[in-house]
């Protein structure tokens, strides 16, 4: 503790990101990164920016990037807000749109940054319990609130809500903002982006870190009514008027424009996810149905912390959360098919399965 810290800093419990070791040979299935490289167009766009223009500030409005985002989602550029990854976008969302007298609502098992933002900005919050199967019932959020936030698909559970369910809730929750964190939506659920033009209290938040393979560039964005976006811009321009550098803007726009690469790689991830879910089930794991690029699973006979440690000894990283309700679960990011097969082989040994599941066991 430092005597020069203010009261808020003393009380903060920062978010702990997934381990990022600098060690060759690791199978890294712990941070939900895309196992496939970004579009070749991204690398070309980055090379084109490596010239004397680096001495100049980037476009503070990221106009080309906003145009590319608006084309993908069928919205107007003035309905787009961009930032350094969806984490920064969400931080501005909490600051600009969710600090009210009534508490913000979000699930009790969800992205760990939400309570951190509340602590940083002095926002009251209430956790809404998920059902025993980890599904979210939005009817449980039908109460006075200062805003409702949830990922769809949820993290770290992977369960998703249909767009029609979310729309029904937005229609009845008209006194506050509904924020849908769609970091993983490209892997198997419907985005609410088509609804933002109809509902002035709906915000859809996205990242290029997952389905576009750009975690290293840190680009996120929000889609919403122009009034919501204006509020976010006011906060951003009171904090950092140049949040996205020249390389990030160019690379992100190029990634969004390469639809073929996006479709090919996201489908490969989804296919590997379904294969891995069947393989884990054959080993005795109970796997939560997932629409994301990860699986949440636990084995009734094996301690999750022990499995985590044993896998690490075998150079395989997965994620473990010491949180109520999921402390015996592992969150496993979807890797390449080869990486998933190596994980299954290691888990087969650790769970005392004498032989790997046959292809007939894993495949339907």
Report the top-level CATH class of the largest domain: Alpha Beta
* Separate helix tally: 12
Sequence of strands across the biggest β-sheet: 2-8-7-6-5
Q: What is the number of independent domains?
A: 2
Shape: globular
CATH topology of the largest domain: Aspartate Aminotransferase, domain 2
Number of strands: 13
Low-confidence stretches: 354-364
CATH architecture of the largest domain: 3-Layer(aba) Sandwich
Task: Give the CA-CA distance, first to last residue.
Answer: 56 Å
Strand portion, in percent?
A: 5-15%
Order of helices and strands: HEHHEHEHEEHEEEHHHEEHEEEHH
Mean pLDDT: 94
What is the CATH homology-level superfamily of the largest domain? Answer: Type I PLP-dependent aspartate aminotransferase-like (Major domain)
Question: How is the main sheet built?
Answer: 5 strands, mixed
Helix content: 25-40%
Give a structural overview.
This protein is of the alpha/beta class and 364 residues long. It has helices at 7-11, 40-48, 63-73, 85-97, 113-121, 163-172, 226-236, 246-257, 259-282, 304-313, 337-350, 359-362; strands at residues 27-28, 80-83, 104-107, 125-128, 148-151, 178-181, 202-207, 220-224, 286-287, 294-298, 316-317, 319-320, 330-333. The protein has a 5-stranded mixed sheet. It has a 4-stranded antiparallel sheet with strand order 9-10-13-12, covered by helices on one side. Helix 2 packs antiparallel against helix 8 (246-257) and helix 4 packs across helix 7 (226-236). The model is unreliable at 354-364 (pLDDT under 50).
């Amino acid at each position: 503790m430092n005597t020069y810290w203010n009261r808020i800093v003393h009380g903060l419990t920062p978010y702990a990101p997934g381990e990022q070791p600098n060690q060759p040979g690791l199978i890294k299935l712990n941070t939900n990164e895309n196992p496939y490289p970004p579009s070749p167009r991204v690398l070309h766009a980055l090379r084109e920016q490596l010239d004397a223009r680096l001495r100049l500030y980037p476009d503070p409005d990221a106009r080309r990037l906003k145009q590319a985002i608006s084309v993908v989602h069928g919205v107007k550029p003035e309905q787009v807000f961009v930032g350094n990854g969806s984490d920064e976008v969400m931080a501005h969302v909490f600051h600009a749109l969710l600090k009210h007298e009534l508490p913000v609502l979000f699930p009790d098992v969800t992205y760990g940054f939400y309570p951190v933002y509340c602590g940083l900005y002095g926002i009251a919050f209430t956790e809404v319990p998920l059902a025993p199967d980890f599904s979210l019932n939005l009817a449980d959020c039908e109460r006075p609130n200062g805003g409702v936030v949830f990922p769809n698909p949820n993290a770290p559970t992977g369960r998703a809500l249909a767009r029609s369910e979310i729309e029904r809730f937005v229609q009845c929750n008209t006194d506050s903002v509904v924020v849908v964190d769609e970091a993983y939506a490209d892997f198997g659920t419907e985005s609410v982006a088509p609804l933002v033009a109809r509902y002035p209290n709906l915000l859809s938040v996205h990242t290029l870190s997952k389905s576009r393979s750009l975690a290293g560039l840190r680009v996120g964005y929000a889609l919403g009514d122009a009034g919501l976006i204006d509020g976010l811009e006011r906060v951003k321009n009171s904090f950092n008027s140049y949040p996205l550098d020249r390389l990030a803007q160019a690379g992100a726009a190029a990634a969004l424009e390469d639809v073929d690469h996006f479709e090919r790689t996201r489908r490969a991830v989804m296919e590997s996810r379904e294969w891995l879910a069947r393989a884990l089930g054959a080993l005795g794991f109970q796997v939560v149905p997932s629409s994301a690029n990860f699986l949440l699973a636990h084995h009734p006979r094996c301690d999750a912390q022990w499995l985590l440690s044993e896998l690490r000894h075998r150079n395989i990283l997965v994620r473990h959360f010491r949180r109520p309700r999921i402390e015996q679960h592992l969150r496993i990011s979807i890797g390449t098919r080869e990486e998933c097969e190596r994980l299954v082989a290691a888990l087969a040994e650790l769970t005392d399965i004498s032989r790997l599941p046959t292809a007939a066991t894993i495949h339907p």
